[in-house]
Amino acid sequence: MDTIGSNNEMSLKELVDTIKNWFFFLLTQWKIIIFAGLIGGCLGITYSIIKKPIYKASLSFALEDEKTGGNLGNALGLATSLGLDIGGEGGSVFAGANLTELLKSRNMVEQTLLSPIKVDGKLISLAEMYIQNNDWREKWQNDDKIKSIQFLPNVERKGFTREQDSILGKIYENLSKESLNVGQKDKKVAIITIDVSSKNELFAKYFCEALAKEVGNFYIETKSEKARLNMDILERQTDSIRGELNSAITGVAVANDNTFNLNPALNVRRTPSARRQVDIQANTAILTELVKQTELAKVALRKETPLIQIIDSPILPLYKEHIGKLKGLIIGSFIVAFLTVAFLVFKKIIHTI
């Protein structure tokens, strides 16, 4: 037991002596360490000045997707049983995680990039603004295939060339990896947040707002498409029957004019008027039912059209991620001084070996 205690005591003493030796060794190198720290501080300040700040735009929204129910649901069920499909329950294709994936999809991002914005009094697309912010046109001057390519706002995506597709694909790749973040901060709350980061403050704000608008329009049109189509069909049928009814009423009047003061014995001449009276009665019954179903279809369309409520939108000035001069000085000094100490220790160990 005494031997073990003695060995432990010697080991602790050796450890303390080793720490002292390293401390005094580093103390003899204080000039080098301080000089390295000063150089690191200068580098940190220089980096904080050169490094452009990153602006972050955030937009959050909630969906109110009201489902058909109650008395309206009973009425729609009755209409369906009569063979009339006037819309009803909307699908949940874009619910939850599916909607966040839609916001990050290439189609939606590229359509957003073609949205018009006004910069310095000139109407351009967000794609053009991105190209200008990253000085891509200067790099394209020696490439005849792409140096004259322009992305005009609101142009048809289908007519793009292979080079335009490639450029848009590269922008989408950069945005999806570095700038665009979409998700729900709390899974229990149905609020979706869009975060866009960029070195250009206006681009971050414009792109964030345009993406929410583009996806919102697509979402609403898709969710209410079936109800809108059925309402359009019912409106066309209503207009058609109303035209037939008006024609029948006019026909009765013409037939009555032709039989004015007619001999009561000539009843065959009254046949056109009787036929028109039957048409009036039939068309009146059909028109009455169609008007009812059209009104139900309008209500169904309003129920099927989801409401996208913007909760927070990006407001200038945006949140800025930037390394200040003091922070750059401290971080730069620490990193370079630490690397210098590590180098001196490693050099002494190699020399000792």
TrEMBL record:
Topology of this chain in the membrane: Multi-pass membrane protein
InterPro entries with a match to the protein in the record: Bact_polysacc_biosynth/exp, LPS_length_determ_N
Subcellular location as annotated: Cell membrane
Keyword Transmembrane: yes
Keyword Transmembrane annotated: yes
Main localization category: membrane
Annotated ranges, domain Polysaccharide chain length determinant N-terminal: 23-112
Keywords: Cell membrane, Membrane, Transmembrane, Transmembrane helix
Segments traversing the membrane: 32-50, 328-346
PANTHER family noted in UniProt: FERRIC ENTEROBACTIN TRANSPORT PROTEIN FEPE, TYROSINE-PROTEIN KINASE
Listed name of the protein: Wzz/FepE/Etk N-terminal domain-containing protein
